[in-house]
Amino acid sequence: MPIPTRLNFALTAVVCAAGISLLWLASSLESWWAIAGVGVAFSYLMLTNYALLHEAAHLNLHGDGRINYALGVITGLLFPVPFTMLRIAHQGHHLRNRTDFEMFDQYYSSDIKVVRFAQWYSILCGLFYPVLPVGAVLFCLCPGLVNLPIFVKARSSRHLLGDIGRGAIWRIRAEVLAIIGFFALLFWLLELRWECVLVCYACAALNWSTRQYVSHAFTRRHVVEGAWNLKHTWLMSWLLLHGEYDLNHHRHPETSWYYLPDWTRPEDPRPSYIAQYWRQWLGPRRATEPAPESLTDLPLTVDS
Fold it and tell me: Domain-by-domain residue ranges, the chain?
């Protein structure tokens, strides 16, 4: 199926321009209620920004690999996260979905229950979002951090940065410098106020983080089939670029977002997105299924 190149390019341009405009608008307002309102709008725009970034991570944003990489870097600037780091980490997600390395919604009897609940609710409350840019900076300064015992022993985060090979480190460093330069330029040209920008990204963090596991929570322990095709409103479906069809995406990660609804099988359950969203807040459950084995390969390739 052909990639909708022109549509993807237009969406990337509109989302990036709108995101910058909303940061400028928030910085020009005095009422904190108005700034918060802009932050909410920014948070929904960032859902589409991440969906485009996700498409680039699967080489589905543009048919030309060089242009796909450039668009991935551009969408990563606004997120902000280095594209190469996210691309490698996301392939790890597809390789280890619903294994013990990515089991956040369940716990074993041997786990410390308080820790597992704290981890789960920290994700839902948006604390996972700042881990990405902060972790990228720390990794660039000292890649050896991933070998520290605290990372090696952490079941869920062990492979978050551990898949990054030596060949990708300098590319990630260049992308981090591009992000720093991008925001420095925005603050200088648009006279952005850091507290207003922080409000916008706090809203984005909460909105994005609460959705990152919604299509995997409480599914079967299977690397590919451990996802939901959820029912959502047509507007949110387009904002998410059909991201609610995550089961179809895991079955066909090489397919553009544009065609994901076409892969739905008649027998696939379609729970309500909203019901599933609120179900997460009831907390993790005890694991009753054995962990699946990780995959070893996907159509997507990463730098080593």
Answer: 5-208
